[in-house]
Amino acid sequence: MKKAAITALQIILFTAFFASWHMIHPQKGFACSCAGPNSVQEELQKKAAVFSGKAVSVKTSGGLLRSSADPVEVKIEVDKVWKGELGKTQLVYTARDGASCGFGFEKGKQYLVYAYSDNDRLVTNMCDRTKLISNAAEDLSLLKEGKLPSLENRQADPDFTGWYILIGAILLGVASYIVFTGSKRRRR
């Protein structure tokens, strides 16, 4: 009985300490804050790609734990290009939520996209000039005439990082098995 009371007291003290620690030292919160849009000409110089097209798919990463910063993959059917070597379809990435500056793409809608390159991926956010094509009259008049997409497809292949991790884990498991069974045989 005494042991149970001591254990319960330890749990209560630990919980109180943990809760008070987080009240005294709260974690910092982050939100999106944009300085204001650059001019069309500045964005055209800075960005890796500027193009228009229709969002044909919008894929959010699923999972038990979600964050506003989770990546969203948007597949765009490109119709005009002002900067960059793009194919007829192009993958663009953004954060899932506006709290992390993610741009809210909707399937089936036309967009003017200003994207920068990050690890060989095109990325955009709500601080860029990316917008619905119906709200882009000023940009389109300054961009003049675009060209048609020139490459067959860019970034059409999925990211294979998961496969590399899986293959590495299998090889590590096989190597561990060989070492374990080899050391077992030597002991005999």
TrEMBL record:
<keyword id="KW-0964">Secreted</keyword>
<dbReference type="GO" id="GO:0005615">
    <property type="term" value="C:extracellular space"/>
</dbReference>
<dbReference type="GO" id="GO:0002020">
    <property type="term" value="F:protease binding"/>
</dbReference>
<keyword id="KW-0732">Signal</keyword>
<keyword id="KW-0472">Membrane</keyword>
<dbReference type="GO" id="GO:0008191">
    <property type="term" value="F:metalloendopeptidase inhibitor activity"/>
</dbReference>
<dbReference type="GO" id="GO:0051045">
    <property type="term" value="P:negative regulation of membrane protein ectodomain proteolysis"/>
</dbReference>
<protein>
    <recommendedName>
        <fullName>Tissue inhibitor of metalloproteinase</fullName>
    </recommendedName>
</protein>
<keyword id="KW-0812">Transmembrane</keyword>
<dbReference type="InterPro" id="IPR001820">
    <property type="entry name" value="TIMP"/>
</dbReference>
<dbReference type="GO" id="GO:0031012">
    <property type="term" value="C:extracellular matrix"/>
</dbReference>
<feature type="signal peptide">
    <location>
        <begin position="1"/>
        <end position="19"/>
    </location>
</feature>
<dbReference type="InterPro" id="IPR008993">
    <property type="entry name" value="TIMP-like_OB-fold"/>
</dbReference>
<feature type="transmembrane region" description="Helical">
    <location>
        <begin position="160"/>
        <end position="180"/>
    </location>
</feature>
<keyword id="KW-1133">Transmembrane helix</keyword>
